[in-house]
Amino acid sequence: MIDQFKTTPDMWEPIILEDREKDKIVRKSLTYWQDAWRRLKKNHLSMLGLGVIILLAFAAIVGPVLSPYSYSDQDLNMSNMPPRLELHKLDDGTFVHVHKEYRLYEVTENGELIGRVQHTKEDMVNKVREFELNGNEIVIDYKLAAINKDVPNAPKFTLTINGQENATPDKTVWNKTYLFGTDTLGRDIFVRNLYGARISLLIALVATIVQFFIGVIYGGVSGYVGGRVDNFMMRVVDIVDTIPLMLYVILLMVVLGAGLMTIIIALGSVYWVRMARLVRGQVLSIKENEFILAARTLGASPWRIMVRHLIPNSMGAIIVSLAMMVPSAIFTESFLSFIGLGVSAPQASWGTLASDAMGGLRTYAYQLFVPSFFISMTVLSFNFLGDGLRDALDPRLRK
């Protein structure tokens, strides 16, 4: 009997290396979130949007701290300064800039503002202003402003330096003192837009937190319990959703006054509704699966089933919805501030900056362009990120 199991050398055969390696697992196993991040990184527009959001958040936090100016600092001598300065060179090498309001500024060659030069004489009838700087006589004749007011790109003044007319600027440089220029009160537009980014990103953060905690829990409970409880909770959602946001804001302004807290409370009381409906739909479809029945059979409590099974399996749709609703919250805050229902002066948000710039749109268009650019860039970045998350978190696209 023992001899039947005796082995001999001729019974063995060497294994070929290729045959031994063909069944080896060469790719590391990835979790759901690792695979989602891998696919998100392949979407260049989404990564660009994520990078812009991170850069904007960093600039909003650090920028106002490093700047020598505050969002509320005013200097009427520096009002409406443009981001690009046209410089005229004097005989002694000094550079000056002639403002659109026919003010004269001494500027360094690199574009740093030294100060405003006060006129020594002004003839209101003949529309002439005379200045003196370091022994140089400078005359600004702005009679052409009335003549060419309807002619685009036509000269509005003539500049005479030491008796010689200086028609064209010697060079054009960036404003190194105020990177984006100043507004009508001489406040730094760059710092005020960074401060506005703080408010807009804070609104985005609050809207995200409210949607996640109130909307997810409310919708999860409604979908899991079902029956009359679900019907009652959804009718509450319908009532909240039918009341316009503008009415919420006006009523809160009457009670609390205008300000950032009013906007936060108004958005927080409305923006969880869509998330609640989304989560309810997800829970209604997931709770009929076999693993939920198994958890019930094992004695898991409803709260544990919802927290450990239902909500985690809905996180893909929840995260995508959060990313897509954040731009809506930012745009809503900007719109409310634009019409005067947002933050109060001297606080600045992108909406209030755009509203303040409307009065000088034809003359100082850059004051409106800067906040509009920040709003568009932020909303577009969140939309790019939301589209990428939608594709990355879709389990049907996993490979």
From TrEMBL:
Its main location: membrane. GO terms for cellular component: plasma membrane. InterPro entries: BP-dependent_transpt_permease (IPR050366), MetI-like (IPR000515), MetI-like_sf (IPR035906), OppC_N (IPR025966). Pfam families: BPD_transp_1, OppC_N. CDD domains: TM_PBP2. Residues 197-386 form the ABC transmembrane type-1 domain. Keywords: Cell membrane, Membrane, Transmembrane, Transmembrane helix, Transport. It is found in: Cell membrane. The keyword Nucleotidyltransferase does not apply. One of its GO terms (biological process) is transmembrane transport. It is a multi-pass membrane protein. It comes from the Bacteria. The chain crosses the membrane at residues 47-71, 201-225, 245-273, 316-344, 364-386. Belongs to the binding-protein-dependent transport system permease family. This is Oligopeptide transport system permease protein. It comes from Acidaminobacter hydrogenoformans DSM 2784.
